[in-house]
Amino acid sequence: MATELPTAVDSALAGMRDRARAASGALVALGAEGRSRALLAMREALHARAEAILAANREDLARAEAEGIDPALSKRLALDPAKLATLADNLGELARLPDPLGVSQGRRIAKGLRLETVRVPLGVIALIYESRPGVTIEAAGLTVKSGNGLILRGGHEALTSNAALVAALRQGLEAAGAPADAVQLVEDPDRRWVGGLLHLEGLDLLIPRGGNGLIRRVVQEATVPVIETGVGNCHLYVDRAADLDMALAILRDGKVRTPAVCNALETCLVHEAVADAFLPMVAAQFRQDGVTIHGDEAVRRRIPEALPATERDWAEEYLGLEIAMGVVPDLEAALAHIARYGTHHSEAIVTNDYRAGTRFQEAVDAAAVYWNASTRFTDGFMYGLGAEVGISTQKLHARGPMGLEALTTVKHLVRGEGQTRDF
Amino acid sequence: MATELPTAVDSALAGMRDRARAASGALVALGAEGRSRALLAMREALHARAEAILAANREDLARAEAEGIDPALSKRLALDPAKLATLADNLGELARLPDPLGVSQGRRIAKGLRLETVRVPLGVIALIYESRPGVTIEAAGLTVKSGNGLILRGGHEALTSNAALVAALRQGLEAAGAPADAVQLVEDPDRRWVGGLLHLEGLDLLIPRGGNGLIRRVVQEATVPVIETGVGNCHLYVDRAADLDMALAILRDGKVRTPAVCNALETCLVHEAVADAFLPMVAAQFRQDGVTIHGDEAVRRRIPEALPATERDWAEEYLGLEIAMGVVPDLEAALAHIARYGTHHSEAIVTNDYRAGTRFQEAVDAAAVYWNASTRFTDGFMYGLGAEVGISTQKLHARGPMGLEALTTVKHLVRGEGQTRDF
């Protein structure tokens, strides 16, 4: 890495990084009002260029179809006038949120020095993501609001859409007197650009958003700071003291409505005392919903059509209409299972027993732990953060839904009258 | 890495990690009072076993001397009764600090759900460090206080001292009914253990403390979360509106008293308007102090004995009685120099000009930026954190001196009455 000669890709990325850093400085200098004006101008530019953006998106969709792409991916790729208008209008909502920069805390420290700890942008942030062009708009909005420069590397199947979106966003920035280079797009589909970003010296944060393969590669290879997002092998534990109708509603909310997201449920564990009552309810509901059950022996005795669950099923993030189900003798067995197979994203218990609920919330090591509520609430908007750049499944810096503050750091400013430490 | 077969080292480290994680759970269960009692018992055990510890340290020192080790390293390695007693007593101070765990913030989120965000330990922390055995005590104290399990890998030259210290600390933990495995030491000097820690799956944080070579290797190679610490190429900029006596005192504090630390000064930039007045003052003082000056042409015209500064001098962290000095035409030139060569640790300006001071504090991208004060204040104790596990020079998670909070993360607990998201 460090010892190899820089390639043309590395040099180009270094140039983008330097322009993004200069843009970050200019965004800070604009102040909160200037950055809000930029967000409103970005919104207007998206509305004004909606036709060109939707035409570009149709081009991507036609190419994807010609290449015989997975329909689920096509769906994530597709924009329509209403969706684009909502994404644009969300920039206006973002403009109204409190400024995450400049917030400071002061105190006196040694020898009467005044220490002021102030929130500042991270600097230059890169995002590697897959097909959803909406992420382009959300990420640009969050980074402009927080005074950061952004380098985007989207999926090749969304390239034409992303180019049209970024052209509009940059036009908006310029119209508001803000630096267009605050939002830059890598337009070359060559994979070497991804490798270059993983090792781009001076990059302050790299966020991978997408499938497990992408996130694993970034975490394993990157030498720049990374926040790991989004892999969720989420569990629901139905306790012996559960309200079973509530449990079924939460199970269905987590599995059926939007199965392709990271806060969807992938495994359901049932206390053996309620297995006879609950499993037939699940079987009847999931037959209607078309959900395939992979069960352990105790489940298969009660749900004949369930397939046998293998070791792989317990670890699998299906992201589709499949679920792993098991019967456990008690809460501690459920906790042990979750500790072994969970991905520290979102886990839930349904119970009306105080000790079971508190023990579960205490013992589970995850970003979010639910008691009588759906795991689908792990989301920046649901948490009231106003926006979300991803859901962190790591423990450093940010955990769970990441809003604007996750895109900032602090600086310690110390003022004195010539104080020296003298030792 | 992931595809290779686990070695005996990897298996042993996995065992240490699992025991450390169980110990973390036990420390949390002990509560704040139980953890404080453990710290006091660790203090008592260090006092009680002081003779054995000092004998072990003499053994390390004798071996180091026989191997012809650098005297500066010998000095860092040496313990004496007073130093050991102070290190032990600091555990008592730590016991009195507020508990970093359990601190929570609550609010209502979507659909009336109650979200409680609560501070929890990171889990398992590993420290790779060099010769100072005092770090063993400090790190153990901080991790026990914050409910984390700790795996220590010290320098081979301090192995006997560290083994004696860790034996005492573990005895203290046990005496207080706390798990001894909260503090574990890798006692095999084989370098493969370092490699194993860099890739130990499930490790929550790895902190390297030591020279630039160690820190670079860890940051480049590690696939576990790392906080980068300590490299400090710190600058002092003496502005045209500086009080020159103050500037000289701050320069001397930063360069002469304790030159081998990361917050010491390595470069001094002087505004050309005060170069004729200030440089002779520096020359006279540094002749007495035995500091070698590496200067640019403008400095060498005024300080004949200064050696010519090369590109390498501007980037060098001397950690000794040497300094790079240059004359700049204005504040902006100083800022550009710091942006190019600084390591984002601590930077200082001396000036009585309001605009120069505010511009410097705004523009410099570093963990700590000083105005009329010494960079030597970048320190957890000086900042009133009560303790310090290192000084972060990165922007994610923690920046600047890291106290107890840097060893924690948050967990989001959500309670409801069966709420589902429904889309």
Automatic annotation (TrEMBL), chains A, B:
GO terms for molecular function: glutamate-5-semialdehyde dehydrogenase activity; NADP binding. Signal peptide: none annotated. It is found in: Cytoplasm. It comes from the Bacteria. The keyword Cytoplasm applies. Residues 37-288 form the Aldehyde dehydrogenase domain. It catalyses: L-glutamate 5-semialdehyde + phosphate + NADP(+) = L-glutamyl 5-phosphate + NADPH + H(+). PROSITE patterns: PROA. GO terms for cellular component: cytoplasm. GO terms for biological process: L-proline biosynthetic process. The keyword NADP applies. Its main location: cytoplasm. Pathway: Amino-acid biosynthesis; L-proline biosynthesis; L-glutamate 5-semialdehyde from L-glutamate: step 2/2. Keywords: Amino-acid biosynthesis, Cytoplasm, NADP, Oxidoreductase, Proline biosynthesis. SUPFAM superfamilies: ALDH-like. Its EC number is 1.2.1.41. Catalyzes the NADPH-dependent reduction of L-glutamate 5-phosphate into L-glutamate 5-semialdehyde and phosphate. The product spontaneously undergoes cyclization to form 1-pyrroline-5-carboxylate. Belongs to the gamma-glutamyl phosphate reductase family. This is Gamma-glutamyl phosphate reductase. It comes from Candidatus Hydrogenisulfobacillus filiaventi. The lineage of its organism: Bacteria, Bacillati, Bacillota, Clostridia, Eubacteriales.
